Amino acid sequence: MTINWYPLVFKPILKDRIWGGAKLSSLLHKDIISETTGESWEISTVPGDVSVVKNGALAGKSLNELLELAPEALLGEKVYSKFGKTFPLLFKFLDAKEDLSIQLHPNDELARKRHNSFGKTEMWYVMQADPDSRIIVGFEETSSPDEYLYHLEHKTLTKILKEIKVAPGDVFFLETGTIHAIGAGIVIAEIQQTSDITYRVYDWDRVDAQGKSRELHIELALDAIDYSVSDAKCKYAQTVNVSNPVIDCPYFTTNFIPLNGQQTFYKNGDSFTVLVCTKGTFSIMVNDVATAFREGDTILIPAVITDFQLSGEASLLEIFIS
């Protein structure tokens, strides 16, 4: 089958969460499923939550189907040689109307051994933040399993964790093992390894409508936690119409593009590119065909498309695998 590739957008996979709200609709134009919609999975191959193309001639095909048909054209030569027919990243938007649980994610080794999964290295880009909203990232000072368990038992865990106030445009890089929580009043774009493995250690003693508390993973988390101090906040330049480096890790590279006008970008075919529009409107031109996008869109540009033109006024995250 010959595929005429173009920038792909997928149907959002929406998740109701006890901590969710309605901002995914009001800010990011998602057709939310409830007033407690916490997540929109934009590009996913997590089993049971596989993305389906929303636009163009390939509409209705799943990402896994495309990976079977033409994996190298979609993923890129380098990514295909490393991951085969597996899409290695997961893209989400999250709306935290209330605090998320205090949690962490295992590394590749633990996740493979326990869950036959990738680990979950991730980054957050803050899109919107209410006044005085904050996140929790890591420990205030180097801790230990004994100190951590003592505070967990006495419900004083937050006393030894680092709270950071946030503002739109802030970026945080969370390595596996980093204990963390997104605070109330924040909308973020999240980029992570393809994994849905989370160890929840404290959930603010809340219960759902049936009076049930959510499952905790105290034992699993104990040897997965990094007890050192995390320096998670990332500084980055914001030069207009260029790819400003933000994060470069073994799992993904993220750049920030403040687009104002028109710029052509050239790729080498090694990796797909994903563009996440965090603000504004813009268009992508490929082979003289322009497609318009807006805030809240996540676009997968197949690796076989090695040059494209962006035009408009927008803030974009550019993600690929180096």
From TrEMBL:
Domain (Mannose-6-phosphate isomerase cupin) ranges: 246-319
SUPFAM superfamilies referenced in this protein's UniProt entry, alphabetically: RmlC-like cupins
Native source species: Flavobacterium cerinum
Gene Ontology molecular functions: isomerase activity
Alphabetized InterPro entries for the sequence: Carb_Metab_Reg_Kinase/Isom (IPR051804), Man6P_isomerase_Firm_short (IPR014628), MPI_cupin_dom (IPR049071), PMI_typeI_cat (IPR046457), RmlC-like_jellyroll (IPR014710), RmlC_Cupin_sf (IPR011051)
Segments forming domain Phosphomannose isomerase type I catalytic: 11-116
Upper taxonomic lineage: Bacteria, Pseudomonadati, Bacteroidota, Flavobacteriia, Flavobacteriales
Keyword annotations of the record: Isomerase, Metal-binding, Zinc
Annotated protein name in UniProt: Phosphohexomutase
Pfam families: MPI_cupin_dom, PMI_typeI_cat
Domain of life according to the entry: Bacteria
